[in-house]
Write a structure and sequence with these properties.
533 residues, alpha/beta, 8-stranded mixed beta sheet
């Protein structure tokens, strides 16, 4: 990897993709593309990595994404703690209002919930980027202007020392946060849901053992109108507290170190038991971008959407953006698909992320009540629901919006990941099958019935053919747990076409439908671009 401090004779850098903004989403996108041999220039205005945490939670799908880049969560226990308890919402008297079952494994084969230390995870991503000669990271450089050309985009950069540099790229992706410059270049409007709540976010490095404190369960929300409070892990040895600003307070009054320690004291936390890593007031918002792509400019992460943190899905959604976009850019850059497939990115992701924004807002409306009478009414209703057995799912599992997929029973849904046996070893699907897309077949005769043009299409895409069988070997695997047989059965399907981002392109009901499914994929990859873009 080349960095911005390396000696570069030519001040004009050329890339397949320029990534503006090098947070977790930008890092992942650069890593995914760089690992596939694409030339990437990542541009970050901050000269050093941000040393403090922002996100603290990710789900099983992100666990699978990390697995795909060589950082499976169970190998980084100094950075990530899997969560094995309920996530509770409690009234002021500590009686439960809501329980979300975050125990056990999710559909992607990892724990439903993990808490982590973001700077340490970003350092792990950095370490893998640094191994790639295909990726150049320019720290301390800020994008200023751009010019769109027929074959790419020219981006003019300026350093803090007023040095100048030019980057040309076939595509530019803005992962540059809520105040995105690239979004302003696109000129996209925002759908803003009018959700604004100020919260003091506090991150602590614990000096005393966590067992000394009454953190049970480890993650919960105190829905007390006198001071709504979030209490969650912040990764190994760390805690995160969030305190809502009350109507009688200003943000400046709340964002004060003395105030922070005063709010922490009832929880047994003092300067003798914890180090205050940071305290900052954030305005939690809910919005998404209406246009995610314009020509050769695209958006991902907070540049495209924002949500309250109560479901722990903000960073998760941004990483899903990166995985969705990376495989499509790869095919376009290689000439294996037309540029028009990039039009599918925004509609797919926008529809998907809206479910998480809505879920986060609904959870936020539960806790962000400062009126005692309204809170008492809420408590009665929620405790009645809890007593009646009403359960909240761990997280939404929505379908992608319309895009590069077939509209059938499984199309657009997240695929599952479970253990397989290929005859030489047992392991999770992605470890056995490898990266990229896959055609999963329920029986060997379906493989035998594929047409030459079907296998040629999959080979050109570098998508594997995986057949479930009683005996493993030569592309055949044993479904050890029965997960895949049951999963296909949910769709009354004999086959599922799984994209490289783990989402289902489509499912087939029989051999004839399987032929139609593969024809659909071939046609979709070479569809013309939308004239409106």
């Amino acid at each position: 990897m080349m960095t911005g401090t390396d000696e570069v004779a030519d001040e004009r850098l050329h890339a397949d993709v320029a990534v503006i903004g090098y947070g977790p989403v930008g890092r992942l996108l650069a890593l995914l593309l760089g690992r596939r041999g694409k030339r990437v220039v990542a541009i970050e205005r901050q000269p050093q990595a941000y040393p403090l945490p922002r996100a603290v939670h990710f789900d099983d799908e992100v666990g699978r994404i990390l697995q795909s880049v060589g950082i499976p969560p169970d190998t980084i226990t100094d950075v990530v703690t899997p969560y094995r308890e309920f996530y509770e919402w409690r009234a002021a008297d500590r009686r439960p209002l809501l329980r979300m079952d975050w125990r056990g494994l999710g559909p992607s084969g990892w724990h439903v919930s993990h808490f982590f230390h973001q700077p340490a995870l970003e350092a792990l991503l950095d370490a893998r980027v640094e191994l790639l000669e295909t990726v150049t990271v320019l720290r301390g450089w800020e994008a200023e202007t751009h010019v769109e050309q027929d074959d790419g985009v020219r981006v003019e950069l300026r350093s803090a020392a007023d040095e100048r540099r030019t980057v040309t790229a076939r595509y530019v992706v803005g992962t540059d946060g809520a105040n995105s410059l690239v979004r302003s270049w696109i000129g996209s409007a925002l759908t803003d849901l009018g959700y604004f709540h100020d919260w003091l976010v506090v991150d602590l490095l614990m000096l005393a053992p966590l067992e000394d404190f009454d953190f049970s369960p480890a993650a919960w929300q105190l829905c007390d109108p006198q001071r709504p409070t979030t209490l969650v892990p912040g990764g190994p040895g760390r805690r995160r507290f969030e305190f809502m600003r009350l109507p009688s307070e200003t943000a400046d009054e709340l964002n004060d170190e003395e105030t922070t320690w005063r709010l922490l004291k009832p929880w047994g936390i003092t300067p003798q038991t914890a180090t205050l890593e940071r305290h900052a007031v954030y305005t939690f918002q809910a919005r998404w971008c209406d246009t995610w792509r314009k020509g050769r400019l695209l958006l991902a992460g907070d540049a495209a959407h924002l949500m309250p943190p109560f479901a722990g899905q903000g960073m998760c959604s941004g990483l899903r953006d990166a995985v969705n976009l990376a495989w499509k850019l790869e095919l376009v850059l290689d000439g294996r698909a037309d540029d028009g497939i990039l039009d599918s990115y925004g509609p797919e992701r926008a529809e998907h992320v809206r479910h998480f924004i809505q879920s986060s807002m609904e959870l936020g409306e539960v806790i962000c009540l400062a009126d005692p009478a309204a809170a008492a009414e809420r408590d009665r209703a929620m405790q009645a629901d809890l007593a009646a057995g009403v359960e909240q799912p761990p997280r939404p599992l929505p379908r992608l919006g319309a895009g590069l997929r077939r509209d059938d029973a499984g199309g657009g849904l997240l695929s599952v990941q479970a253990e397989l046996d290929d005859g030489t070893r047992r392991g999770l699907f992605d470890d056995i099958v490898g990266p990229g897309g896959a055609l999963l077949l329920a029986a060997p005769h379906l493989r035998e019935g594929l047409r030459p043009q079907d296998t040629a299409l999959l080979s050109d895409l570098d998508w594997k053919i995986v057949t479930l069988d009683a005996e493993p070997g030569a592309g055949r695997v044993v479904d050890i747990t029965g997960t895949y047989t049951a999963w296909l059965g949910q769709f009354h399907a004999v086959a599922a076409l799984i994209r490289p981002d783990f989402y289902v392109y489509g499912t087939a009901a029989d051999a004839e439908d399987l032929t139609a499914l593969l024809q659909h994929l071939g046609a979709a990859l070479h569809a013309p671009a939308s004239p409106s873009r």
